[in-house]
Amino acid sequence: MALLRKGNAQTCEQLLEEYKSKPQPTNPEKIVFSGIGENDVYNISAPFEDEGELVIAGRVESRDSEHSNVYFFVERNGEWVPRENAPVLELQDPFFTRISGELVVGGVQIFPHPTNEGQLGWRTVFYKGQSIASLQEFTKGPDGMKDLRLVELKDGSIGVLTRPQGEKGGRGKIGWTSISSLEELTVDVVNEAPLLQGQFIDEEWGGANEPHLLSNGLVGVLGHVASFDEEGNRHYYPMVFALNPETSEFSDMELIATRSQFLPGPTKRPDLEDVVFSGGLVRKPDGTADIYAGISDAEAQKITIVDPFLQYER
C-alpha cells in the first residue's frame, strides 16, 4: 500500500497557484431541475443507482431561506424531476454511500440553537435501507458537526471522516477513525476521532464530501477547502487527497476545479459567489471523472476532470 506523507498545510492561495499548472476541467454543464416550483436545487449528490434507476439527491430551498428539504430526483427528457412517492427529508447537503450492501443516506439537520437565542444549530443525520423507499433514520452525529462521512474499507470495517469545529477543530478540520459496524457510530466515537494533523492552516477550513475506496485499499477523499477574504466573502474550492486507513497518513491536498471553470449563474448572496461545494464524483473508464457540485449556493452543475484518484492507485 502506498505510503503517504504526513500533512503539509498549504493555504488556498498556494493550492490555487499549484493548480494553475495542471490539466484544467472541461465541459461544464448545468443540471436542470424542474417540478419544485421557484426553489433552487444545489449541493447535490453524485447520481447513484436505486432500484435500477439513476437518482440524484439534492438540497431544495428558496433563495432567501436556509430551511431546505432533500428530494430524490430522476431524469426525464433531459431534466431532473422529483421521483414519485420517494421520501422527502428535512435536511441540507445530502450524501450517500453503501455499507454491507445497504444504502446509507445522510444530510445536515438544522434546529433552534439550545443556548444562542435566534440562532440555528446543526447536526448530521443518517438513514439506511435496502433502497430509498425503505430508508429509516438510525443515528445522529454530534451537535455542531457537518461533513461527517462513512466509507466501507477493504476489510469490511467502516472508515469515519469527521469535522469538528471550535475547541478541537477551529473553523473546521478533518478527523479520521474506523469502526467495525454501523451500530458503533456514536456521538462519542465521532467526537474522539483524532484529527489529521497539519492539513489546514487555522485561518482556513475544510471538510470531506465523498470518500472513495480505491483499488489498493487507500481512501480517496473528495472534499473542500475554504477561506474568507478581507471583505468577508467566502471562497470554497473542491479538493482531493488520499488517506491510508491503517496508518492515518495522508497526501497533500490538491484542488481539482474553481468556480470560474463552471458556467456563470446566480448566487444566493454576494459573499457566496465563489463557492463550489463538491457533491460527488463519478469515476469513468476513460480516465476522466465527472464532479457534481453546488455552485454559489444557488444551482448545480457538473464538470469533467482527469480522474484525480488514479495517481493514488498507481
3D architecture notes:
There is one protein chain. The chain has 314 residues and is mainly beta. It contains 3 helices and 20 strands. The protein has helices at 12-19, 187-192, 310-313, and strands spanning 26-30, 40-42, 48-50, 53-61, 69-76, 79-82, 92-99, 102-112, 120-129, 136-140, 149-152, 158-162, 175-179, 205-213, 219-228, 234-243, 254-255, 274-283, 288-295, 299-306.
List the helices and strands and how they pair.
Elements: H1 12-19, E1 26-30, E2 40-42, E3 48-50, E4 53-61, E5 69-76, E6 79-82, E7 92-99, E8 102-112, E9 120-129, E10 136-140, E11 149-152, E12 158-162, E13 175-179, H2 187-192, E14 205-213, E15 219-228, E16 234-243, E17 254-255, E18 274-283, E19 288-295, E20 299-306, H3 310-313
Parallel strand pairs: 16-18
Antiparallel strand pairs: 1-20, 2-4, 3-4, 4-5, 5-6, 7-8, 8-9, 9-10, 11-12, 12-13, 14-15, 15-16, 16-17, 18-19, 19-20
What characteristic shape results from the CA principal axes? globular
Please, what is the CATH homologous superfamily? Glycosyl hydrolase domain, family 43
How far the N terminus sits from the C terminus, by CA atoms, comes to 10 Å
Q: What is the percentage of strand-forming residues?
A: 35-45%
Radius of gyration: 18 Å
- The CATH architecture can be given as 5 Propeller
Encode the helix/strand succession as letters: HEEEEEEEEEEEEEHEEEEEEEH
| pLDDT < 50 stretches | none
